[in-house]
Amino acid sequence: MSTISEAIKHDHRELEQYYNEVVNSSDPDHQQRYGNQFTWELARHSVGEELIVYPAFEKYLGPEGKQMADKDREEHHMVKELLKTFQNMKSTDPNYVPKLKELYGPLSEHIKDEEEKDLPALENALSKEGTADSQSLAKSFGRTKAFVPSRSHPNAGENPPFETVMGLLTAPIDHIADIFRKFPDQTISPNPSTK
């Protein structure tokens, strides 16, 4: 059973891996597959954080947690706007890799801040409550990712309940469209043809 920090960091490492697969390849098919995987993971990860982790910041860290959550939501919105453009591009577009690099710059800063400041503060507060709370958050985070959209929808907002409602409406459409997208053969993805 993992903690919420471990679950978030695991996703961050996957995002880094998918990013590197795209930027270090010259094969358009490989780039498209890993670009789709990157989009799929980032969209689900972002919404999962917004629905589970940021409310925990507010609950367990008080006013400081509210400031952290608001800052992270703003950063997510900016990244989602960039992802919205990237996710609709083909890997044969000469701007495909530059757009991903443009997106990854602020995303990598966000990841660094989250791992060095936000998550340690949350884990410290949760340790006072007991580790079961961190494990429970991790479980909720994982479950939530199964039901949220797999594409970026920045107009849905970053705050519950609006994001929850919009997510429930758009997720089935995203998941059906994922069936027709290419994904890496050896990764977990929503595309049943890769299983």
TrEMBL record:
A Pfam family this chain is assigned to: Hemerythrin
Transmembrane segments: none
InterPro entries (alphabetical): Hemerythrin-like
UniProt domain Hemerythrin-like: residue ranges: 3-122
Highest taxon above the source species: Eukaryota
Name this protein carries in UniProt: Hemerythrin-like domain-containing protein
Organism, scientific name: Patellaria atrata CBS 101060
